[in-house]
Amino acid sequence: MKFDPGIAIKPNQSPLGFSYGTGIFAPSIEYRSLDAIRASLFDPRCSGPDPVYAIAMDIGKTRHSESLQNHYLLFGAVIYAKGCLGSELVRSQGHVHAVSARLRASTPELMEIWTGQAIVYLQEHVAYDPGRCIAIFAREGDIVVVPPAWAHQVISANPNENLAFGAWCVRDYRFEYADVRSRHGLAWYPLLSGNALYWQANPMYRKRPLESCTARLYPELGLTGSRPIYGEFECSPESLSWITTTERSPGFWERIVCSHLPEIKSH
Length: 267
Hints:
Shape: globular
Largest sheet: 6 strands, antiparallel
Order of helices and strands: EEEEHEEHEEEEEEEEEEEHEEEHHE
Radius of gyration: 18 Å
Number of strands: 21
CATH class: Mainly Beta
Oligomer: single chain
Number of helices: 5
Number of domains: 1
Strand content: 25-35%
Structural class: mainly beta
Strand order of the largest sheet: 4-5-7-16-11-14
CATH architecture: Sandwich
Helix content: 10-25%
């Protein structure tokens, strides 16, 4: 792995998962099988890699264990298999962050790409009208902030590479899948024709424009790219308090999303 995530973790291709250096605590790997995500795919009967991706939630340096608990933060990692799901790029099934029982609100997420190329797809609602639909293209070392209550999924943009990334979220994270599955996925499917990406609208939604842009830094959240996101916590746990703070000025998260707008293009 060329990118240094600031913690001794290494993505493994076979078996799919992670290995760790000394002084690291980590959970057992969770796997998402192809059957588990079929309900949200463009072609639910497709063939593809199985498992599709592996997840490790609650990773950290042993010396930070108490501080992570006290700050109510959880660090996780995900790695995707190579290949495609039929004609669709390998991806997660899509979800919304459930309301945190402790914070009584949906909460944001901070992602960091470690290997491969990613598309983080966001839409405002899982309803007939999905609202704004945005695809953010990210490479190794890029970060993406997912706002509270927005539906989202992470897509591996290159089927010849394993996509791996880390993420910060609240400790009582929980994902809501039911509405996404009932609509057979989110509002746009990422498909391949040869080596070219194209987007297919999901007919279960009102068709909204798909806007695309590249990842950026978030200086308004204190994220300037000077260190990896685990290093942000290590340097100053309070610097990530925006993940666990639900009281924001009106329009705060809309401004975070729309800050991509100067370079957004519609499809």
